[in-house]
Amino acid sequence: MKSDPPPHDASVTIDLARRKRVTRPDLGAPLGVATRVAAPYVTMTRIAIGRLARHRFARAGALVLACLALIAIFADLTASDLPIVCRWRGSVYVLPNVVRPAALAGLDVDAMRREAGPDDWLVSALVAHGPLEKGAPDEALRPPLSAGHPLGTDTLGRDVLARVVYGARTALVGGLSASAVIVFIGVVLGALAGFAGGVVDSLVTRAVEALTAIPTLILVLVVVATSPHPTTGTLLWTIALTRWTELARLVRAEVLAALGTEYVAAARALGTSPVRILWRHVMPNAVGPAIVAAAFGVASVVLLEAAVNFLHVGLPDTTASWGEAMGEARAHPEAWWLVAFPGAALLAALVALNLVGDAARDALDPRLSGVVDTSVRE
Amino acid sequence: MLRYAIRRLLWAIPTLIATSLVLFLVTTLAPAPPPTGDPLLDEPRRARFADLPRFFNGAPEDVQTRAAEAVRHVAAEDARHEDAARDLVRLGGAALPYVLPSFEALAPDARGRVAVALAPVAERMRLEGRGDLTQPAAAVSFWTEFWYDRALDFTPLALERAVDRLVNHGSDLRESDLVALDTYALSAVMPALASTTDRVALERLSRLAQHATERGPVISPDASPRQLRLARADWSEWWFVHDDDFVALVGADRGLAMVTETRYARWLERAAYGQLGLSLVDGEPIADKLRARAPLTALICALAMLLSWMAAVPLGALAAWRHGRAFDLASSAVLFVLYATPTFAVAEVLRRAATGTSVSGSRVALAVAALVVGSMATLARWQRTAMLDVVRADFVRTARAKGLPEWRVAVLHALRNALMPTVTLAGLHLPVLLGGTFVVEEVFGLPGVGFETLRAIEGHDTAWLMAVVLASAVAVTAGLVLSDVAYSGLDPRVREVLARRQGGRTS
After folding, report:
1. pLDDT tens digits, residue range B23-79?
2. Do B31 and A228 make contact, defined as CB atoms within 8 angstroms?
3. Is the torsion defined by CA of A243, A246, A250, A252 positive or negative?
4. Helices (H), ranges, B243-359
5. Closest chain B CA to residue A299
6. Do the Cβ atoms of B442 and A311 come within 8 Å?
7. Considering only residues 351 to 380 of chain B, which have any Cβ-Cβ distance to chain A shorter than 8 Å?
8. Chain A residue whose CA is closest to B436
9. Element holding B441 (H helix, E strand)
10. Taking all residues of chain B, what is their mean pLDDT, rounded to a whole number?
11. Is the pTM of this model over 0.90?
12. Which of A12, A218, A370, B341 has its CA 20 to 30 A from that of B400?
């Protein structure tokens, strides 16, 4: 499907995605290539990507997300209790804050600065504190721009910048992984229900209805409260195992619609095996809902994770979380920086994710794209 | 319409069963404390029916099997005979009809051991002339004679009559008659305890129960209504958990018990009869607590739903009607940001903005406002999309061409049709709204169900948590059914299609 279009071919046939020139295949090409691009068509993927790329808000959302992803990936360079590079007692360590060499155990930047010999040097991260590093009591609730803490500290003397930065990692990693599980379960069960029908269909439909009736936030709260050793993983699994219903419903509908089409009937008449029909002819229809569900899934996981941590229901504080930081501010109304910075990060992530999700839905749903939204957004 | 509503209601039953299964699996995730062998320490385990199989019980236990088991251990004098003897005393009078008639079948020394093990029961029954029951020979002859004299008292009919007489014309003599039946009387005393309102009879009954079980409160005649309620709840909860120690499964009951004596069935029974158990924190009956807290939560939720509807429908419809114009662009942008903002953040900001106001009414207003922000944005966005679908429809153009005034076309022709998808989605929005209510209650410190739930999480009150998930699931299912029925009320076509199709699914 990816062949270089001949440069000066006048026979442009279709301009569905505007600006995407699709041309007749080069008839002089070797046979194997020619058969692959025999028909002049644009794939749905291309149309969708084209639409997405022209979508101004989608671009903005993606940019914000990319920034957050970079922050999450390079969190160790922004805030860490150990230096980025250092020479200590005769040997050079690169990224000791990630590798955690045994020789530096028990040390942090402050201690190393104090005890540094003449040959030792170090380059510390922007903030010389990890997200979990608690400060002395007098270090608690420092306002922003105080020494060593650009965004201040929280009630336990932990650096707010470090927590915001590592919170991005928690949110994005958690959101992506839970969303992956959601998409997997949703697509598999939805396809199974639509394709198998009968008892399987009824079972899946009942499960979908049953799970829809349980408020996710309440369920997550209860599971976290009743499980013996709750972790962020417990929370993510609970969300992932209960939020696939919407996607399964959509995929099932797509599969049922596709099964009624003439191309599936044709494939059947040709003796195509059910597995191949499902994979080649039916499932591509489910890609759109799956992508949209993935984008919104990440948003809803990030939101739920923040809400649960905001309520402080006894998750261990082994991970930094935006919601948890905001929850701490409830007891200290004067500490506006505890709400403002993590809140801004959370809002930015949620707005960006929803923008991308909205744009993906517009781009992937041909019914909506022409009529409804493009003219408004462009 | 009515036919459809009934049909939809019936189809909610399988959904509710599936929901209950999911909730059951979730709420039994938490492992019960491991068995210790000590009945007192195992009490929390028992209260959660952790010893029962999950879905099928091949050999349900009752007083008969338990007594036979205990007798076997005592007779054989094996490693567990001390526990078994204690068990036998706990089962008490209820076990006698299954132990004493088969005395003859035991070997003489085994018979002696069992008879001696039963001695504390005789003491509890305050029987006259019992002699030295620590001597096997004396004990055996005592119990043999006892059964010869009193077997007739240990029948359901005699028991019922005795309890009836005690309730209606109580006297010390009648009470001591029942004391002599020991735990055998419980199966009639417990229902009487729950139903009678006579304070004196209540005192006698609860004293009987306490004497036989060596636990629980006695209801004094001048107890306050609250004390009375708590004591009754305590007894009914205890009986709910322990009745299989004192009641024999006869005939069909035994077959039925294979299904009902399981963890799932007992859990479901709790839910269905409102037997939600006692709070593990303060001993209050969960059902009472729920009744006390639910109105506030329901009020907040309903107000938020109503207000966000009232705001969202015109807003979304107008934005779509003015499609692409300044109002549409501005409102879409604002709604989008509001839509993405988490409810807890809105609530927190509102709380900070309003510090100083401490009247509870204004706190409720703020909580509702915080909820409305998010759900209004969601509903308005749906309403706008639905309206946009309709705006270009042929019938709208026709209405315009007929020369109808613009507002008439917009409201009567377009909006009426654009309302339907929003109605369905509103049902699906209910779980989100309910979750949001929990959060705002916590933020504004409103003593509703959500606030109590957060306290229950701190206190590990699993009984309350289970009840809350169950109650919210039932509420949401009711909401879904309602929204489906409302949808069919708006659109007769849907009604026909849905009624024909199973389950009334709307997607």
Report:
1. 788 777 666 667 776 666 677 777 777 777 778 877 777 888 888 888 878 777 787
2. yes
3. positive
4. 252-260, 263-272, 286-321, 326-340, 343-353
5. B340
6. yes
7. 352, 355
8. A217
9. helix B416-444
10. 80
11. no
12. A370
